[in-house]
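Collaboration report, partner site 2.

Our partner group contributed sequences for two proteins of shared interest, and the home lab folded both. The records are reproduced in the order in which they were received, starting with the first partner submission.
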Amino acid sequence: MTQVSPNQDPFRAIADPNRRRMLDLMLGQERTVGFLADDLGIAQPSVSQHMQVLRLAGLVDARSEGRRTFYSVRPAELRGVAEWIAKYEAFWTGRLDALENHLSRMKSKGTRAK
């Protein structure tokens, strides 16, 4: 079994709500630390630390241009997270479908009894 460093674990990286928001903001286009800090209302050093976690987890790419660094999401790296979540989505969809069927049967029985 391959060991993943806590710094490389995408699940740990996306556990923080600020990092999830950063990923959302970068999904459509590259963003700088300054942009992310302004949008989130947190200090640039904090954003830089969050970006380091996301980079170590392989969830973002960084591209330097002069003194600025532009960050972008690597959506393919989130595939493992999406696949893991999909199992639970399928489970709950099945459970909710079963509940809906049960309630429909109960309603039908109640209608016939009148």
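Second partner submission, folded after the first:
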Amino acid sequence: MNETKELILKIQEGIQEKKGKNIIIADLTEIDETICNYFVICQGNSPSQVIAIVESIKDSVRDNLNIKPYAIDGTKNAQWVAIDYNDVIVHIFLPETREFYNLEHLWADAKLTVIEDLD
């Protein structure tokens, strides 16, 4: 498994560990001039769950792959937190914020993979 796929898998595990929902992986590799190759998009139901998902992703990736994020933005209000892993950017939203920005629609040219919720 290549490094990026492994990173995405550990991000997904971190999200699911804290019951993050509606995970979508957007493959941007076929789109010119993007800031990264993949988006991982998910949501939590409250600001505290969004922060818990952020921490879980960081732990999962660091503990398994020894990779730290380049930057994390949005933790102050926790409506939309972005974690930058260079090749992969993770977006953790509150449901209403996710609906408003609608990244999946914005990047409709990307190959979207829906990950089933674990419930």
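Feedback sent to the partner group on the second submission included the following. The chain is about 40% helix and 25% strand. Residues 5 and 40 are 12 Å apart (CA to CA).
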